[in-house]
TrEMBL record:
Transmembrane segments: none annotated. Its EC number is 3.4.11.5. It is found in: Cytoplasm. GO terms for cellular component: cytoplasm. It is an enzyme of class 3 (hydrolase). PANTHER family: PROLINE IMINOPEPTIDASE. It comes from the Bacteria. It holds the Pfam family Abhydrolase_1. It comes from Humibacillus xanthopallidus. Keywords: Aminopeptidase, Cytoplasm, Hydrolase, Protease. The keyword Protease applies. Belongs to the peptidase S33 family. This is Proline iminopeptidase.
């Protein structure tokens, strides 16, 4: 891993529809361009990502996706952040920023939800993608969202029942993220916060494979907790605002692009078969399954990603 990098330039991208998207650049201005595609959705891009990139060889661009991080409006402050906030909007933001920064093509580096967004961008703009380095690979299709709710509810029944119990009487639990989302956009702050706490408790359960749940300290921040929950349920409840085959049906468009995919064997947030089938469909893809990792690269996965990014640099 490389030292954490500090930005040499920051800015706000005005989207023209009410959003201002925060971005920053780190590393070598003359290096290979790399776009960090953060997860969540709604987590924001932290300096942690820069540790994977050689600062002498990479021009690293970090972006806080709409409604998250330092972008405005923030979903923890207002539901206005959810307006004009879909996968298509995020892809358009990346293209707008790429053009503004004078970048012809870039390496995409993403994880979890960021792997879905990176793949969606790549199949839409394959000519702008040099390579893909993705971990905790998912495509956020309907069956994957059902997996992280109803299927995992059979593994953690008590915690899943607690999540369902937070829903109002008569709520349709067929689409759990969408049902929770209705709580999160309530004008009553107490109702919205209760919904955020319920969703984040489920996120914590899925992130802790066995034993007592290890709460994430980031959920202690009420603004982050609410904003993250609003955005993630907004996207998951609408299956990423993509047709089910929007990515998998267009993989032929990126068949020529090198890709390194990292998945933890014990990552229960989505089925491993998703990454396996992507690797089978992409001739230049390498799938690395880290046996003891959960929803993170793990030590072995981190080294795989560092090595991959070293190879992808000019």
């Amino acid at each position: 891993m490389h030292p954490v990098q500090q930005p040499y330039e920051t800015g706000m991208l005005a989207t023209g529809d009410g959003h201002e998207v925060y971005w920053e650049q780190c590393g070598n201005p003359d290096g290979t361009a790399l776009l960090v595609v953060h997860g969540g959705p709604g987590s924001g891009a932290s300096p942690w990502w820069t540790q994977f990139c050689d600062p002498a060889r990479y021009r690293v661009v970090l972006v806080d996706q709409r409604g998250s991080g330092r972008s405005q409006p923030h979903a923890g402050d207002t539901t206005a952040a959810l307006v004009d906030n879909t996968t298509a909007h995020l892809i358009a933001d990346f293209e707008h920023l790429r053009s503004q920064l004078g970048i012809d093509s870039w390496v995409l580096f993403g994880g979890s939800w960021g792997s879905t967004l990176a793949l969606a961008y790549a199949v839409e703009h394959p000519e702008r993608v040099r390579a893909l380095a993705l971990w905790a690979v998912v495509t956020t299709r309907r069956h994957e969202v059902d997996w992280l709710t109803h299927t995992m509810g059979h593994v953690y029944p008590a915690e899943f029942d607690a999540l369902l119990a937070a829903l109002p009487a008569g709520a349709d639990s067929a689409n759990v993220p969408l049902a929770v989302h209705r709580l999160l956009v309530s004008p009553d702050p107490a109702v919205a916060d209760a919904g955020a706490r319920a969703w984040c408790a489920w996120e914590d359960r899925l992130a802790t494979l066995a034993g007592a749940v290890q709460p994430s300290p980031r959920y202690e921040d009420a603004r982050f907790r609410l904003g993250f929950s609003r955005i993630v349920t907004h996207y998951f409840g609408h299956h990423a605002f993509l047709a089910d085959d929007a990515i998998t049906g267009r993989l032929h468009r990126i068949a020529h692009i090198p890709a390194v995919l990292v998945r933890g064997r014990l990552d229960i947030a989505s089925p491993l078969r998703v990454a396996h089938e992507l690797a089978q469909a992409l001739p230049l893809a390498e799938l690395h399954v880290v046996e003891d990792a959960v929803h993170a690269p793990g030590g072995e996965g981190e080294q795989v990603l560092v090595d991959a990014l070293d190879r992808f640099a000019r």
